[in-house]
Amino acid sequence: MSESDSIEIRRLSRADAHAFRAVRLEGLQRYPAAFGASFEDESARPLSFFAETLDGHVVLGAEDRGRLVGVAACQFHDGQKKRHRGTLWGMYVRDEARGKGVARRLVDGILSHARQRVEEVGLSVWSENPAAIALYKAAGFLVTAQDARALKIDGIYYDHLLMQVRFVES
After folding, report:
1. What is the reported pLDDT for 4?
2. Residues 121, 87 contacting (CB under 8 angstroms)
3. In the prediction, which pLDDT does 5 show?
4. Is 169 helix (H, G, I), strand (E, B) or coil?
5. Domain range holding 54?
6. pTM of the entire structure?
7. What is the DSSP letter of 35?
8. Are 90 and 36 in contact (CB under 8 A)?
9. What phi, psi does 83 have (nearest 5°)?
10. Where are the alpha helices (DSSP H) in the chain?
11. CA-CA distances (angstroms) from residue 41 to 38, 46, 74, 133?
12. What are φ and ψ of residue 65, in 5° steps?
């Protein structure tokens, strides 16, 4: 049995809020330029915020022997003009699970859910994260734009790439 055989991908529920919060905060703290949210803002939020996030979004988790080692989420829009799109957000895999195909399995799982509901999925990725960009390109995403100065952290600006995968061509 390989190491990756012990990793299960499943949809998280509000019962997973504590573990989800821990993984989310770890990602925000370690890689602030990779996320639109900040560690400072989200660490101040109550556990109920994370439970409600799990209720309101498709959030997949990667578990290795019961320990949550990665997450990815998709937000689906309710508004009439945007309900054809989803947004992949919050992608993070802990160090011990990297290099085992976990990130790809999470992205593939999100896209599988999204295909049933929307025509396309977009995302924003830090332009200085070649591994993430390669992952998304391998999953079918194309770069559609560069968002210069997308984030400002401690006086430093960070560019993001906007990427999109379409399930239905217009």
Report:
1. 57
2. yes
3. 73
4. coil
5. 3-166
6. 0.93
7. -
8. no
9. -70, -5
10. 17-30, 39-43, 47-56, 102-115, 130-138
11. 5, 11, 20, 26
12. 55, 45
Give pLDDT, residue 170.
Answer: 62
- Residue 127's pLDDT is what? 95
CA distance 68 to 90: 14
**Which residues of the chain, if any, have pLDDT below 50?**
1
Q: How many CB atoms sit inside 10 A of residue 105's CB?
A: 19
Q: Is the dihedral of CA 95, 21, 109, 112 positive or negative?
A: negative
104: nearest Cα among 128, 57, 136, 75: 136
- Residue 60 sits in a domain whose CATH number is 3.40.630.30
Which residue blocks in 44-169 are alpha helix, DSSP H?
Answer: 47-56, 102-115, 130-138
Tally of residues, the chain: 170
What is the domain count for the chain?
1
